[in-house]
From TrEMBL:
The keyword Plastid does not apply. PROSITE patterns: TIR. SMART domains: TIR (SM00255). This is TIR domain-containing protein. The keyword Secreted does not apply. GO terms for biological process: signal transduction. InterPro entries: DUF1883 (IPR015073), DUF1883-like_sf (IPR036488), TIR_dom (IPR000157), Toll_tir_struct_dom_sf (IPR035897). Residues 122-248 form the TIR domain.
Amino acid sequence: MAGLPFTKYHFARLDKGSTVVVTLSRGANVRLMDSSNFNAYKAGRSHRYVGGLVKTSPFRIAVPRSGSWYLTVDQMGLKGGALRSSVIVEPPALPVAKSYAPQSLSNIRHERPPVVPDDAGETWDVFISHASEDKEAVAEPLANALREHGLRVWLDKTELRIGDSLRRKIDYGLAHSAFGVVVLSKSFFAKGWPQYELDGIIGMSVNGTQRMLPIWHEISRDDIAKVSPSLVDKIARNTAINTIAEISGEIAEVVNEG
């Protein structure tokens, strides 16, 4: 091979699964080689390569492993003539996408006993703690959907306003209900809750289950992380991803198991 003219393309790094696409103006020998085999090729010694005589183009070569590669084009054994070549690299395909699979709500506290009757002597399946600004968009539609599943929902007394003790409201709701929901939104955080109260509302119950289900409404992960990092990684639902019907169905399934 020494002394034979050839065209060389050097790729400092190609990833396994990439495709080298070669376009030729006429038939030619095309070789994809690692550095040691390229040096042997230049010296006219035996070498290994991917490719061969290419008669039609574009011609595609799959990169067998990640690393540095050389691609050569020559006309050894072929009738000479003007030869033009060009090369592009197509990156490997993206990993197969996995469908979003939210964590089960079965690890949210859903205890039946002991539930303490409220001031009116009643107990509830679900209570929804929410900022008053989110009542119309989230809290009431969710409450109505849960009632359609036959659940008793506690809503009005758990509405949160400035000046309330968040932890006291949550503890009160959990004492009288089997399952707790808290709607996290910009309006919710605008109430200025103390950090210790935010950390405690979702926390873990005595038996190790998460105390309540947060529902994110018109708020991003980054928004929540800025206010309370401890809330970000909890089992939650998001109104941008999950419909009210889907959320209510999951809650009803878990509560009815309790």
